[in-house]
Amino acid sequence: MPADKAPQGVAATPACSAIRVHNPYRQVTNRTTSGSRIYTGNTTWTTASCGVSSFTVQYGRRAYAIVRVAAETDCYGGAANQWCQARVLVNGIEADPAGAEPDSFAFDSNNGGQFDWQGHAFTRARPIFFGCPSRSGCTYPVVLQYKTHATGMSLWVDEQTLEVDVTYSS
């Protein structure tokens, strides 16, 4: 990791950065991006930029994954009183609490209109109950996804963080 520079010599932020630290009992991965992206007309789930991570569980062990997401967002367009959604998948399964329709999780609403930037965050969790059956270990994917609740909407996302915090047990 490069050394911090004074404000007059600020280096360009990478499109996506990742830091991973672990010990026998815990692993934390942090993926961040300062590059903004607009998800327009996505009424189906779309994987977020810098929204893919993973964690590894050793043979015979179990794990509990807590996933934290934070970003500056702007949900806009479409009919009034709509929202933009977010979810986290751990090993292809939506982490808890899962907000299925009609009670879906509103990450941001379009009520403020365009240029109504706000910081939003949420946390999800998923246990790996049965332990890893492979002697070489098991890697579980973590995926952050966004979508708009209705057509004609857009979700602008900037300064996003995806943190995966895993605690192991035997």
CATH class value: Mainly Beta
Radius of gyration: 18 Å
Structural class: mainly beta
Main β-sheet, in a few words? 6 strands, antiparallel
Distance between the termini: 33 Å
Could you describe the 3D structure shown?
The protein is mainly beta. The chain has one domain: Jelly Rolls (Sandwich). Strands 1, 2, 3, 5, 9 and 11 form a 6-stranded antiparallel beta sheet that branches. Strands 4, 6, 7, 8 and 10 form a 5-stranded antiparallel beta sheet that branches. The chain contains no helices and 11 strands. It has strands spanning 17-23, 26-33, 37-40, 46-57, 62-77, 83-90, 93-94, 106-109, 118-128, 138-148, 153-169.
Give keywords.
170 residues; mainly beta; Jelly Rolls; 6-stranded antiparallel beta sheet; 5-stranded antiparallel beta sheet; 59% strand; elongated; disordered N terminus
Compact overview of the structure:
With 170 residues, the chain is mainly β.
Give me the secondary-structure topology:
Layout: E1 17-23, E2 26-33, E3 37-40, E4 46-57, E5 62-77, E6 83-90, E7 93-94, E8 106-109, E9 118-128, E10 138-148, E11 153-169
Antiparallel strand pairs: 1-2, 2-11, 3-11, 4-10, 5-9, 5-11, 6-7, 6-8, 6-10
